[in-house]
Write a structure and sequence with these properties.
- There is one protein chain.
- The protein is 28% helix and 46% strand.
- By secondary structure, the protein is an alpha+beta fold.
- The chain has one domain: Roll (Nuclear Transport Factor 2, Chain: A).
């Protein structure tokens, strides 16, 4: 099971790093319960998830990341991730430390996604 979670996280983060949002979306099931922010309601549709991701290539660059699976079982996984990136609008470099809480289906696609993150 750990390999499945590592494989998903690597593909999700690599596609993000490469600014290939369409590839990122291929890691996510169309029926996903997707929380961009833990205190907001989840996205109402996969179209909402697409709208979150289709701006990535335009608003950030120079992405570097690392991650660690910190807890998992057959149903769910907690991943701690760190990232540096540059926001293109103002050329500001950001450091992010975050948590993903995910669940995957039999096909290795994410069916539940919730993230917490701190940006500096």
């Amino acid at each position: 099971m750990l390999e499945k979670y590592n494989s998903w996280t690597k593909e999700f983060m690599e596609s993000w790093k490469e600014l290939d949002w369409e590839r990122t979306l291929k890691t996510i099931d169309k029926e996903v319960k997707y929380y961009e922010n833990p205190i907001d309601e989840p996205c109402k549709s996969f179209e909402d998830v697409i709208n979150l991701w289709n701006v990535v290539a335009d608003n950030q660059k120079d992405i570097d990341y690392k991650y660690e699976v910190v807890a998992y079982n057959d149903d769910t996984c907690i991943i701690n991730w760190q990232m540096t990136r540059t926001m293109t609008a103002n050329n500001t470099k950001q450091e992010i430390d975050g948590i993903f809480h995910i669940s995957l289906n039999e096909d290795g696609k994410c069916t539940y996604f919730k993230q917490w993150r701190y940006t500096r």
